[in-house]
Amino acid sequence: MNKASMTLCGLTALILAGCATPYDTDKSSFWSFGKGFEVSNLSSDTWQISFVGNEYTDRTKARNYLLHKAAELAQNAGYPYFMLRGEQNYRDQTGTSGFGTSSHDFLYGVGNITSETTVMVEAIGLKEKPQNSTLPVYESGFILQNIQVKS
């Protein structure tokens, strides 16, 4: 590989690394590197949703992704409303990566601490809006129209 090709590959990697995790990323995909959505059906009206974003995905963006995904699931299953139960939203440092080399009694190393944002929740689809709910109730259609996510 010549120097120009190596430079182009390096610049491409930097550009891709500088982007937040997109909404349509599936965590089980090889190319997602463990980032994106994972959805588990717990029953016909309940889903466990988790999203892991890279260091460029802040908590607000991750929560908007989660709200939008819950609204999609509820609406696609015929539920005009949904509730979120047990929401967790946190940012973790995931460790270091780097390399080192030594030459003539000299040790040189480079490391990096990365962070990721994780949100998890149980979403419950509802046919009707309950009058006395202890949890906030969201309208699926309203969320889909007003919480914008860019893919």
Keywords, separated by commas or semicolons:
151 residues, alpha+beta, five-stranded antiparallel beta sheet, 3 helices, 5 strands, 26% helix, 42% strand, elongated, Lipoprotein
How would you characterize this protein structure?
With 151 residues, the chain is α+β, with helices and mostly antiparallel strands. The protein has one domain (3-146). The chain contains 3 helices and 5 strands, in the order αββαβββα. It has helices at 3-17, 59-76, 140-146; strands spanning 36-43, 46-53, 81-103, 106-126, 137-139. Helix 2 (59-76) packs across helix 3. Mean pLDDT is 79; it is low at 6-17.
In short:
With 151 residues, this protein is α+β, with helices and mostly antiparallel strands. The protein is built from three helices and five strands.
Topology summary:
Layout: H1 3-17, E1 36-43, E2 46-53, H2 59-76, E3 81-103, E4 106-126, E5 137-139, H3 140-146
Antiparallel strand pairs: 1-2, 2-4, 3-4, 3-5
Helix pairs in contact: 2-3
Cα-atom radius of gyration: 20 Å
Count of individual helical segments? 3
Approximate helicity band: 25-40%
Poorly predicted sequence stretches spanning 5 or more consecutive residues:
6-17
Major beta sheet, strand line-up:
1-2-4-3-5
Largest sheet: 5 strands, antiparallel
Mean pLDDT over the residues: 79
Assess the beta-strand content as a share of residues. Answer: 35-45%
Whole-number tally of structural domains: 1
Order of helices and strands: HEEHEEEH
How far is the first residue's CA from the last residue's CA?
A: 33 Å
Number of beta strands: 5
Secondary-structure-based class equals: alpha+beta
